[in-house]
Amino acid sequence: MRLSWWSALLCSASIAAGVGALAACGPTEDEPASAETSDDEITGANNKMGLRLVYDDASGRVRATVKQKLRAGEKLVMRVRRGRLSATSQTELDCAALADAPPLPPREDVRSRKIVYDGPEVDRSLLASVYTQEWIDGNITPAMLERLSREGADAIVEACIVKDGQPRARLQTSLPYAWDTKDPNAAPTLAGRSGDVRILSSDAGAEPASAAVHSMEKYAELCVEELGDIPFFRKLADGKYETFDCRDFVGSSGPIDGIEGALVPQHVTDEYGMQVTPRECNDRDVGRHNCFAKCDAPAWAHQSCEPGPTVATAKNERGTHWTLLCRSVQGEGSERETPETLIRTKRFNDISMIGHNPRTGKTCFFQNKLFDGTDGAHVPHPGDVEKSRHVWDQPKGYCAGCHSADAFIHSPWIDGARRRDATTIVPTMGVHADFEISWNASPYSIVNREAQDRARVGGTGWERPKHLVSAEAEACTSCHRIGGGEGMARLPAWSVGEEAPSGGTSPLLPRLSDWAKRFERSHWMPPRADGITAETWPSSKYAKAARHIATCAETPTAAGCVFEDVPEVP
């Protein structure tokens, strides 16, 4: 029977300012839906009508699937936009704000028997993370923060099935997650024409390990499969976990066995060894919180002096060591910020986590949506299908080259955080079990690295790193690797009291307190200097090695600079 125009399926292909919409309705012989449907049955990935959202990169379009054809009076509306995902944004989604569109016929998935609705074409700029290299390096301007505040960090796909103005299903997810829920074998189309829908299988199917993934939820699945469970998060069900408080080091239902956490301390000491830590913050810096103009142990990554960061660690039954770092503390307002308020707050502009198995070398890095996913009181498991996107950004590689040699980086700043036995929270070579010193043949690689690198997920950071093996650097590399990249250009120089050539507009040495400038404090590598003094340092083998490393960091092709691939297990 021919359908009248008001009962035909409506399907949007409109894209205005990156926003699309999809709508559908049609009569069926099914019984009417019950008016007693609960909100839990309406909202979220487990909605009763089986509404799912997928993105097909080959066609560049978003699609929706439902369990069965829509009933008379029901319609499907959808849009794609840049915005902000939060713990409440899905339940607060206003279905009336999603536009209707011209009618198109529905298509049926011949294998799963799901009903497939063709949706809007996606602006490809939405596929990339908003966090460029400038964000990672900390070169953040007021204009960047203003744009983030105005537009949000997330590429969002959202849809509703509505009837008589009331939602029957409501679903909001990230575009990367919609990308990963497609069938990885869906290359052939139903009829082989570019306009035909691609075959879709189970919406919840994970990508195989040999394929690239784009969402943190699906990448976390691969990481857990390879590395084991993440101890900070109690599992409730498949894809659902408790959250973790990175200030108090407890799960949402209470303490968790095996977790050690500590505040990263920050002080200011004068040349006589007397603490002169200010009671009020005396410095401001766009894009991160310094609080103090000078301090004893600046955070080396961003040259900042802030009280309040925390770090936690735990080891799971598979031997994987996990660390969770919450830093770049978000204060209560520029007129009220003091060291005390920063130590109490649970808002962190930078939340990151590392999982590393020293036996296999397999590693995963997780990074929040900087200055956007800041809730340190409710840090979600990165694989939580409902909560992950509230905090975590898309999958990351080696974090801009800083972690190019090994998973964990040490400095006086992070090593100020101590366990109950007085050892460092972050695992240290030669101190903690599983971390051997002078084992430069130890494997190290990122989970799913090759597939992620082929697809250039996130742009950069997945290529296999190299480390310096020059004989001239042996005084340093006999204990640990020194990897290429940005970390090599900065950390080795700072560890021997020199300014990094790439210090740019934010050099580290002016941040040092008078006490930290003393030779025995400014030269914290090697840990045991064998009686070397400020006078004998320039002629020492360590100083010669440091000069060679600086040369190779600035010009990797310089004479004598020899690099090899960091070993990895296939």
Tell me what the structure shows.
The protein folds into two domains: 5-180, no CATH class; 216-565, no CATH class. The strands form seven sheets. It has a six-stranded mixed sheet, covered by helices on one side. It has a four-stranded antiparallel sheet with strand order 1-2-5-4. Strands 3-6-7 form a three-stranded antiparallel sheet. 15% of the residues lie in helices and 19% in strands. The longest helix is centred in the last third of the chain and has 14 residues, at 541-554. The chain is of the alpha+beta class and 570 residues long.
Provide the domain count. 2
Distance between the termini: 58 Å
Average pLDDT reading: 84
Largest sheet: 6 strands, mixed
Low-confidence runs of at least 5 consecutive residues: 1-34, 183-209
Q: Main sheet: which strands, in order across?
A: 12-15-16-17-18-19
Number of DSSP-assigned strands: 21
Q: Helical amount among residues, as a percent range?
A: 10-25%
Indicate the radius of gyration in whole angstroms. Answer: 26 Å
Shape estimate: globular
User: Which band does the percent of strand residues land in?
Assistant: 15-25%
Structural class: alpha+beta
Q: How many helical stretches?
A: 12
Features:
6-stranded mixed beta sheet, 570 residues, 4-stranded antiparallel beta sheet, single chain, 2 domains, 21 strands, alpha+beta, disordered N terminus
Quick overview of this protein structure:
The chain has helices at residues 39-42, 133-137, 142-151, 175-180, 216-227, 339-344, 388-391, 449-455, 474-477, 486-495, 519-522, 541-554, and strands at 52-56, 61-66, 74-83, 107-108, 115-121, 154-163, 166-174, 235-237, 240-241, 244-245, 250-251, 260-263, 283-285, 288-291, 310-315, 321-329, 348-356, 362-367, 445-446, 466-468, 563-565. The chain is of the alpha+beta class and 570 residues long.
